[in-house]
């Protein structure tokens, strides 16, 4: 008899798989890699993922890569550039896959066909409302500091695309690693008027250092912070932030400062598997 799959277990393995796919759009993982990170067999992952998302993991991965390639073509990249950015080894292979997915050649979109006619695959949202049980935070005071990185805007519906930003930022880490070796920052800049959020995948920028080409700089204010630790897989970090803002903060009597909060990824965090502790710093008045 087949083992019964609990809903929470299925959501966890699918979330880990989605995270790895988005992080590796330019260098797509194999089914073996996806199964290893999810902690299950290839067969088990394929069955549960297809039941949850609507297609097997490798087909979903291919569709996401081709969707991002279509967006790149629409922004002006050449067919060769868009294909390479999406992890295809040759323009011919990319063009063939593009036709199979969208029913037209990438050159047709490049010539001005537009995205509206394409059936794009956006990041699958799991609608996970689970909250982590929090350990009490430590209260820390720290000075201001600067980070350099890549920044993009997200909504609740598109937040699943954040791992792709980390994938794009990863090649820049070496240029910033000297200031705080092995440490990265995910900075959240919230707009209270619209509810939108900018997220920045970044690393510490030493005082007086020049910002590397292609990156932007952000200065994070100093002040008093509540510091939590997320212990689970990185795909589940929103469970921890939800518990902080929807449970701990209303009960704590504290008032948020309204400045950026941030995630600090220490050297013990493994970006390849998405495991290891992550600090979440919440600014308070």
TrEMBL record:
This is AraC family transcriptional regulator. The keyword Transcription regulation applies. Keywords: DNA-binding, Transcription, Transcription regulation. GO terms for molecular function: DNA-binding transcription factor activity; sequence-specific DNA binding. Residues 250-269 are annotated as: Disordered. The keyword Transcription regulation applies. It holds the Pfam family HTH_18. InterPro entries: AraC_E-bd (IPR010499), GyrI-like (IPR029442), Homeodomain-like_sf (IPR009057), HTH_AraC (IPR018060), HTH_AraC-typ_CS (IPR018062), MarA-like (IPR050959), Reg_factor_effector_dom_sf (IPR011256). Gene3D superfamilies: Homeodomain-like (1.10.10.60), Regulatory factor, effector binding domain (3.20.80.10). It comes from the Bacteria. PROSITE patterns: HTH_ARAC_FAMILY_1, HTH_ARAC_FAMILY_2. Residues 15-112 form the HTH araC/xylS-type domain.
């Amino acid at each position: 008899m087949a083992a019964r799959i609990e809903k929470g277990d299925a959501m966890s393995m699918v979330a880990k798989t989605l995270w790895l796919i988005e992080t590796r759009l330019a260098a797509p993982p194999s089914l073996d890699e996806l199964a290893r990170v999810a902690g299950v067999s290839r067969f088990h992952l394929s069955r549960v993922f297809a039941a949850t998302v609507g297609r097997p993991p490798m087909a979903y991965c291919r569709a996401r890569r081709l969707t991002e390639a279509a967006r790149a073509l629409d922004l002006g990249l050449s067919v060769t550039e868009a294909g390479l950015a999406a992890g295809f080894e040759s323009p011919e292979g990319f063009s063939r896959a593009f036709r199979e997915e969208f029913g037209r050649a990438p050159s047709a979109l490049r010539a001005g066909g537009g995205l509206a006619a394409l059936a794009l695959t956006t990041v699958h949202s799991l609608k996970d409302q689970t909250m982590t049980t929090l350990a009490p935070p430590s209260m820390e005071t720290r000075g201001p500091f600067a980070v350099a990185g890549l920044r993009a805007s997200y909504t609740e519906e598109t937040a699943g695309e954040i791992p792709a930003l980390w994938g794009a930022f990863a090649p820049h880490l070496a240029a910033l690693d000297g200031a705080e070796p092995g440490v990265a920052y995910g900075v959240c800049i919230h707009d209270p008027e619209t509810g939108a959020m900018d997220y920045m995948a970044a690393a510490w920028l030493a005082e007086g250092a020049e910002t590397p080409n292609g990156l932007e700089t952000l200065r994070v204010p100093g002040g008093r912070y509540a510091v939590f630790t997320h212990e689970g897989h990185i795909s589940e970090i929103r469970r921890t932030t939800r518990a902080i803002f929807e449970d701990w903060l209303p009960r704590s009597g504290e008032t948020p400062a309204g400045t950026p909060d941030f995630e600090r990824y220490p050297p013990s965090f493994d970006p390849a598997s998405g495991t290891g502790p992550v600090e979440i710093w919440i600014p308070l008045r």
